[in-house]
Amino acid sequence: MSSIQSALTAIDNLVWGPPLLILLVGTGVYLTLRLGLLQLVRLPLALKLVFGRDQGQGKQGDVSSFAALCTALSATIGTGNIVGVATAIKLGGPGALFWMWMAALFGMATKYAECLLAVKYRQLDSNGQMAGGPMYYLEKGLGSRWLAKLFALFGIGVAFFGIGTFPQVNAISDAMTISFSVPREWTALVLTLLVALVTLGGIKSISSVASKVVPFMALFYIAACLGVLVNNVGALSEAVALVISSAFSGHAATGGFVGASIMLAIQSGVARGVFSNESGLGSAPIAAAAAKTNSCVEQGLVSMTGTFFDTIIICTMTGLTLVVTGVWSGDLSGAAMTSAAFAQGLDAHIGQYLVSIGLLFFAFTTILGWNYYGERCTQYLFGTRAIKPYRLIYLGLVAGGAFLHLDMIWLLADIVNGLMAVPNLIGLIGLRHVVIAETKAYFARGRDVEPEPAPQTV
User: Fold this and answer.
1) What is the dihedral sign for C-alpha 395, 398, 403, 407?
2) Most CB contacts within 10 A, which of 13, 144, 166, 290?
3) Which residues sit opposite 123 in a β-bridge?
4) What is the 3-state secondary structure (H, E, C) of 386-414?
5) Pick from 56, 16, 4: which is nearest to 414 by CA?
């Protein structure tokens, strides 16, 4: 068993090694240049579309653009925003946060492109719901059905055995046991019932819950982080300076921190940044395809704000909290490090509860979001009749996840998660001219002033 685990660890390190990270960031850099820094120039328009009054009235789709964004964010904003940031800074020092920003900046262009393609190539399934994502633009745009099937297979694997179930359920169970002394059996029962109530209603039910819970949980967590930063406002400017300087000089060993080179800061920051916002992995386009919109460009703009909210805002809050309190240089890591930062910056007991509550919300919504992603992948491979069996299997895995500690399964899921990106990035590179042409045509018509309905997607 140990040899199998060692082999899986080696494969995981290979999958998430420099080649994939370079491909992910390189695709974002290319799209950024070809689209004329769209993620910066058009960010005000994107935010206007997110919070505007027009949320899909009279347009084709299942849910509003805002609800589709919240569904994607429900899967994206997760334990990685708490644990992942701490892991990156523990490995690469404060400079890792800067490289998370860079990954997010270029990742916004990638997220824009993949969600634009999701709407352009989406179609109605036999239940009358919108179906789209990498599976459809790989098949219908790129003309590669085998790549589409490969992506869908990886997507189901991640939903069943990785991000969607076991890590999230364990995070919730641990938080409820440690902070509130709730037995795992009760946590498993209540969690399974809650997930069933939401997910059995399909995308409309999931998006309805996500559009209420996601903004609340994000604001709750940001407010907690701001409380720590306000209490340490004198150290804030020094912390920001440390983040920037460490990004280009590395950081020597100090306290419990073993030291990090520039390359380690880059690798850890980019890897955790990509893992957090999922830009280029191909998950968010599945939710974007359900949006009520007649413009693939507008939905691309709305969707790219997900990376902005996830990494530029929430991960930054976590990172600065860790740096200003100085806990990053101690012996703690992961959620324990973040808990220590809140305990030191606010109150020992309050800090523990805040992190636990944040983990509860983040993990629960990730379960909901990945249920939908896996469902769409299942529907693509096996048809709409396979959706109900898929949901039952998913619920069974959620129920059993509280009692499992299967490191090898999580390693396997991490591998499959990384492999999802490969066919998706092939599609983005192969269809880059479509993205560029659609973008130029949209803004040439002056749509950034008054968006108008585009032809319906069938």
Assistant:
1) positive
2) 290
3) 131
4) HHHHHHHHHHHHHHHHCCCCCHHHHHHHH
5) 16
Distinct helix (H) and strand (E) counts, the chain: 22, 2
In this structure, are residues 197 and 385 in contact, taking their beta carbons and an 8 Å threshold?
A: no
- Residues 249, 355: Cα–Cα separation, whole Å: 31
For 336, the token pair is: 């324990």
Per the confidence metrics, is the pTM higher than 0.85?
yes
* Structure confidence by residue, pLDDT tens digits, 179-237: 788 898 999 999 999 999 998 888 889 999 999 998 998 999 999 999 999 999 999 99
Interval 360-414: pLDDT, tens: 888 899 999 999 999 999 999 999 899 999 999 999 999 988 776 656 666 776 7
Per the CB < 8 A criterion, the answer to whether 212 and 72 are in contact is no
- Burial class of 184 by CB neighbour count within 10 A (0 to 12, 13 to 18, 19+): middle
Residues with Cβ within 8 Å of 143's Cβ and at least 6 positions away in sequence, in order, are none
Q: Characterize the bridge pairing of strands 130-131 and 123-124.
A: antiparallel
Residue type, 40: L
Q: Say which amino acid occupies 411.
A: L
Q: Say which amino acid occupies 261.
A: S
CB burial of residue 237 (10 Å; 0-12, 13-18, 19+): exposed
CA distance linking residue 334 with residue 314, whole number of Å: 16
Q: Which two tokens stand for residue 292?
A: 């009520």
The region, left, alpha or beta by phi > 0 then psi within -120 to 50, assigned to residue 326 is left
Q: Output the six-digit token pair for 242.
A: 């440390």
CA-CA distances (angstroms) from residue 154 to 328, 337, 381, 418, 421?
34, 32, 11, 9, 9
Q: How far is CA 339 from each of CA 84, 95, 285, 317, 359, rounded to the nearest angstrom?
A: 13, 21, 33, 14, 11
